Amino acid sequence: MIRVPRVPGRVRGAATLALLASMLALVLVGLAAEPASADTIELVSQSERADNPASLVFTARVRAAAGLKSARLVYKVKNPDADVGGGGEVPVSPGNEIDVSYSLTTNGSERYIPVGSSFSYHWEFEDSTGAKVSGPEKEFVFLDGRYQWRSRTEGTAPPVTVYWYGANESRAQIALDATTVSLRQTGDLLETRVTYPIKVVVYASESDGEAAQRPRGRSFDATVQTGGTRVAPDLVLVFVPDVDVVRHEVGHIVTHVAGDGPFAQLPSWIDEGTAVWAQGSPGSGYLGALALALMGDSTLNLRSMQSATNRPEEVNLFYGQAFSTVDHLIKTYGQARFAELYRTFRAGTSMDDALQKVYGFDQNGLYNEWRKSKNLPELTFATPAAGAGPVTEATRPPLGVPSGSSSGQATSVPPQSQPGTTGEGTAPEVRGGGLPASGIAVLAGTVLLALALGGGAFMLLRRKPAPTEG
Ligand SMILES: [Zn+2]
């Protein structure tokens, strides 16, 4: 039981809370059995539960001798970039001892707070005399109540905590190890380090975790399997417990730190391309789709790849070409300049200007250089290499039946392994794309789509006025 002495006025701030906490401790020790008196509001108990990923219910039992006039829950979702806050009034009933409850939708059209998020919250009460009291701040990790979760934390730079349930422990360890590898390798590539703790929530299957995903539309979900999603700067959900899924998503944690600046987010082609690079192998689904597009000269204009595709049939090509473009930059000009590109973009320039500064060409120039490296003809762009201009449509030669030479070209798939990674030839079958009709054309990376959506939702949430205090 927690008893809170009445405090005049509104309670705010960590110092006040700390004081309250110490007062609470005293009260607990000395007065635990004392009945409510006229000058107290007592928070008898508080708890929170999530029966599923869609909602979170906060409950409290309160004794107020004078009767409660209002109760309010104030929560924060911890986020390394910026905490997201909210809360609201809850109905109170007459009586000296009542239960109050606040229900928060966590996966709905109005907001998406992913499983694995760290919460901090407290209750605020006012009794009928106008006296106000704030309960102690409580922290917890929001986990899917349908499962019995366990956790393990390893490492210090940064610490990584993996959550799993049931007989999933070996996969959890695989996820933990893959996270460590990706943090190091992607960090080395981009010359950066993630400084905050990372959480990885491992579901046993996509169906187990379906309710934890942000819905993206039925046709997309039917054809694209989500292997995992980076849902916050420090949080990855894994639905297909596979090494490359984890490496990819953790790669996004690193690209976010290295490239997303205060003014702009990385274009999707470089974000996804780097995340696929972080995998042990890009996988045959992505590379196969790229090979086909090269054969028919039907690759995507790099400028159309600023955000992830929402066309299921384009997903494999999108990731394959994004990877190939990034791989081209790294292999041709080296790791150091690639890291410099990230730093330059993050500092606040456009991608065109950052490319120009580091490599001497903009996105049109990069697209053409990449095309040339694949034996595709260069394109003439409608507007000259103007950085911030409107998206330009490339004029491209009419598609033709692939000639003998070009099809020969197409079958020569770009090198799959990156320097420093031991060949993980055992990429899971599940990622093998090429089976879109059956709906199992997975794409580890495809998840990113969800991520983009989830991230967007998070941003929306953040823009809402957040009535938090303290
Ligand atoms: Zn991705």
How are the SSEs placed, and which strands pair?
Elements: E1 4-5, H1 13-31, E2 40-52, E3 55-64, E4 68-77, E5 84-90, E6 97-105, E7 118-127, E8 132-134, E9 138-141, E10 149-154, E11 160-165, H2 169-190, E12 198-202, H3 206-209, H4 218-223, E13 225-226, E14 228-232, E15 235-238, H5 243-259, H6 268-278, H7 284-295, H8 315-333, H9 335-346, H10 351-359, H11 363-373, E16 380-381, E17 394-395, H12 404-411, E18 442-443, H13 447-463
Parallel strand pairs: 11-12, 12-15, 13-18
Antiparallel strand pairs: 1-2, 2-3, 3-6, 4-5, 4-7, 7-8, 7-9, 10-11, 14-15, 16-17
The structure holds zinc ion.
Please count the beta strands (DSSP E, at least 2 residues each): 18
Q: Which cofactors or ions or other ligands sit in this model?
A: zinc ion
- Give Rg in angstroms: 26 Å
Structural class: alpha+beta
Helix percent reads: 25-40%
**What is the number of helical segments per DSSP (H or I, 4+ residues)?**
13
Return the CATH topology of the largest domain. Answer: Neutral Protease, domain 2
What is the terminal separation in angstroms? Answer: 24 Å
Mean pLDDT: 78
CATH class of the largest domain: Mainly Alpha
Poorly predicted ranges (pLDDT <50, ≥5 residues)?
A: 1-37, 385-470
Strand fraction: 15-25%
CATH superfamily of the largest domain: Neutral Protease Domain 2
CATH architecture of the largest domain: Orthogonal Bundle
How would you describe the shape?
elongated
Q: State the major sheet.
A: 5 strands, antiparallel
Q: What number of domains?
A: 2
